[in-house]
Amino acid sequence: MTETILEVEHLKKSYVQQTVILDDISFSIQKGEVVVIVGPSGCGKSTFLRCLNRLEDIDEGNIRLRGNSCEKEKRKVHEVREKVGMVFQSYDLFPNMTIMENLLLAPHKVQKRQKTEARKEAMQLLERVGLLEKCDNYPRQLSGGQKQRAAIVRALIMHPEVLLLDEITAALDPEMVREVLQVVLELAKSGMTMVIVTHEMEFARAVADRVIFLDNGRIVEEGSAEEFFTNPKTDRTKQFLNSFHYGDA
């Protein structure tokens, strides 16, 4: 039996001068599902993730986590950010802290967990992503791929119910992309619920249970990864995939 973790109903988001960024978006994700969002630059993909994490306020609509509405009340927003983790393309690690200090900050300060317990889990997660020997290094001493893997661990240690990944390979050199994508593929296999924004089409096809194509703030098409990439239904989707010289589109 499927279990809905996150639901969005008729979400609308505009910026200054009534520029519409997201226009009547409805969306849901089931426990253990991986949804990949693709689309041209500027179509609202990253803004959508930020709305899910409540880093952006919404103008209209409703977001529910396990059936509970995510209101603007400060306590509710903090609860959402604990349960809906997010990894950014810019890493956002504190440069004056070691990797281990970066990882322990939120569990200790926000969740009030004992440092010894959190450190033990951090060591296990770092080993899982191949970074255990880097735990006492500073971010400047790591490659881009290593920093991004550390940022993923920082999100995982908070035990999120949903993990949002926003173009996490966009700032990486090509040779570093594979190591980060491999970590995400392993998370998917382990049953982690994820919403991923990416321009890596091969990766999207490999990791996604469902693909959503967003354009001009609207959902143009969605379907299984196999269906989306081999049998796109709309001309706009075909045009988008052809820009990548992809598959049968």
- Show unreliable segments: none
The largest pleated sheet is described as:
6 strands, mixed
Q: Please estimate the helix content.
A: 25-40%
| Overall residue-averaged pLDDT value | 91
Number of E strands: 10
Structural class: alpha/beta
CA-atom Rg in angstroms: 18 Å
Number of helices: 9
How would you describe this protein?
The chain is an alpha/beta fold. It is built from nine helices and ten strands. Strands 6-7-8-3-9-10 form a six-stranded mixed beta sheet, sandwiched between helices. Helix 5 packs parallel to helix 6 (174-189). The chain is globular and about 50 Å long. 39% of the residues are buried. The mean pLDDT is 91.
Please supply descriptive tags for the structure shown above:
four-stranded antiparallel beta sheet; alpha/beta; six-stranded mixed beta sheet; 249 residues
Brief digest:
The protein is α/β, with parallel strands linked by helices. It has nine helices and ten strands.
Question: Which secondary structure elements does this structure contain, and how are they paired or packed?
Answer:
Layout: E1 4-14, E2 20-30, E3 34-38, H1 45-52, E4 60-65, E5 68-69, H2 74-83, E6 84-87, H3 99-109, H4 115-128, H5 144-156, E7 162-166, H6 174-189, E8 194-197, H7 201-207, E9 210-215, E10 218-224, H8 225-230, H9 235-242
Parallel strand pairs: 3-8, 3-9, 6-7, 7-8
Antiparallel strand pairs: 1-2, 1-4, 4-5, 9-10
Helix pairs in contact: 3-4, 3-5, 5-6
